[in-house]
Specification:
Elements (H helix, E strand, L loop, with lengths): L1 E4 L4 E2 L4 E2 L5 E6 L4 H13 L6 E5 L3 H4 L8 E4 L9 E6 L3 E7 L4 E8 L2 E9 L8 H14 L3 E6 L16 H12 L2 E3 L18
Parallel strand pairs: 2-4, 4-5, 10-11
Antiparallel strand pairs: 1-11, 1-12, 3-4, 5-7, 6-7, 8-9, 9-10
């Protein structure tokens, strides 16, 4: 799910342009090294080079600073050890500052032609919404840095707000809805898009 400060990233698929023309892609790798390698090769084969890639559940090697996509710098919430989110930024994109908010949220301030843009990668625990308080702090920090804020998140919450429209809201979804309202955010997902997560049992959510 992607949100922006109400005043732009799409999950998976093709990169999408943020308000100042920076292309952004979001992906969850479920900690899989093979998927990470194949994705990098697929992007190279298709000559797709998003400026920013917001990653949830990266492989352990990436958290350790290895196997970074060629031509990208790695921004992670911890300097060593396992992490649950990272941000990849193309070498030609200028980063003004980066800040971690626990293992589940990291924010990056980008310098763009139309002023700064803050992007965040976030990953909430499916059972409890753990990470939501960190995300709240991160968004408040980001709004102090720029009026342009974009969050690429695997929130593990279900709601018709981000689709599909027939979705029943679950407890974590309710918590995310409350955060969106409290911080005056706007959901930029296309609500008619089909689910993008497929479980090991083949269930789509």
């Amino acid at each position: 799910m992607s949100t922006q400060a109400a005043n732009g990233g799409e999950r998976g698929g093709n990169p999408r342009s943020a308000p100042n023309g920076i292309s952004i892609m979001q992906m969850n790798f479920r900690g899989n090294e093979t998927t990470w390698i194949l994705c990098q090769q697929e992007l190279l084969d298709r000559n797709v080079r998003p400026d920013i890639i917001l990653v949830q559940d990266p492989p352990f090697s990436v958290c350790m600073g290895k196997n970074v996509f060629r031509g990208y710098k790695l921004i992670r919430p911890v300097s060593h050890g396992p992490c649950l989110v990272v941000v990849l930024v193309r070498d030609n994109v200028r980063v003004r500052s980066a800040r971690p908010f626990g293992r589940r949220v990291v924010g990056v301030e980008i310098v763009g032609s139309n002023g700064p843009l803050v992007v965040m990668s976030a990953y909430l625990r499916h059972s409890t919404g753990e990470g939501l308080d960190d995300l709240d702090r991160a968004i408040r920090w980001a709004k102090g840095r720029s009026p342009r804020v974009l969050v690429g998140m695997d929130g593990n919450g279900h709601s018709p707000w981000w689709g599909p429209p027939c979705t029943r809201t679950n407890p974590v979804g309710e918590l995310i809805e409350d955060l969106i309202l409290a911080l005056d955010l706007e959901v930029v997902n296309r609500p008619d898009c089909p689910p993008t997560f497929v479980s090991d049992m083949g269930h789509k959510t």
